[in-house]
Amino acid sequence: DAGVTQSPTHLIKTRGQQVTLRCSPKSGHDTVSWYQQALGQGPQFIFQYYEEEERQRGNFPDRFSGHQFPNYSSELNVNALLLGDSALYLCASSWTGQDHSGNTIYFGEGSWLTVV
Amino acid sequence: AQSVTQPDIHITVSEGASLELRCNYSYGATPYLFWYVQSPGQGLQLLLKYFSGDTLVQGIKGFEAEFKRSQSSFNLRKPSVHWSDAAEYFCAVGARSNDYKLSFGAGTTVTVRA
What we know:
The complex is a heterodimer of chains A (116) and B (114).
Chain A: E1 5-7, E2 10-13, E3 19-24, E4 31-37, E5 44-50, E6 53-57, E7 64-68, E8 74-78, E9 87-94, E10 106-107, E11 111-115
Parallel strand pairs in A: 2-11
Antiparallel strand pairs in A: 1-3, 3-8, 4-5, 4-9, 5-6, 7-8, 9-10, 9-11
Chain B: E1 3-5, E2 10-14, E3 19-21, E4 24-26, E5 32-38, E6 45-50, E7 56-58, E8 64-68, E9 73-78, E10 87-94, E11 103-104, E12 108-113
Parallel strand pairs in B: 2-12
Antiparallel strand pairs in B: 1-4, 3-9, 5-6, 5-10, 7-8, 8-9, 10-11, 10-12
């Protein structure tokens, strides 16, 4: 059973460019969230997708957008890249069904984005 | 809004010694608490979680954590550390069991010396 998978693992972009990161959730999961982790910091919540809609959003500008597909996979898009967007981008998935022990959130290994 | 403070940026511990990592949270209602571990260049692995019930929770790799509502704390412990426990540890809080907007602390880096 594959866990959360993300691609690409590393990429370098130039300021002003656009980037798309991809995520496949763990089998059986229907919710995907994205986090940004800058060097030396904890992850920061960007947004969450469920049923192909953005359900929650953190304090990130509109340059950050996403999409969820019918197979529950997801994309994160960042436009007009800034140097400060350099970070590890983590995808997390979970299942919205009720779990008596609380739903577990699984993270992928992330996509390292460097903006030069 | 919820928030997490991890007071210790870096801890060094000898192999075989005990380890305790501190986590303080701020949230008005019953929190849902997590500890994750991140090895260099890797994603996050869940060590344990607290949703309700017994305030002492057991996790993987021999870790445990205790929820203390009166102190707004959720400290992580391990009785005897192994060299492979060297990593960064993150405490996180969520508002409810199916709330995927986790708030993370800044992390504690653990170094294990021989």
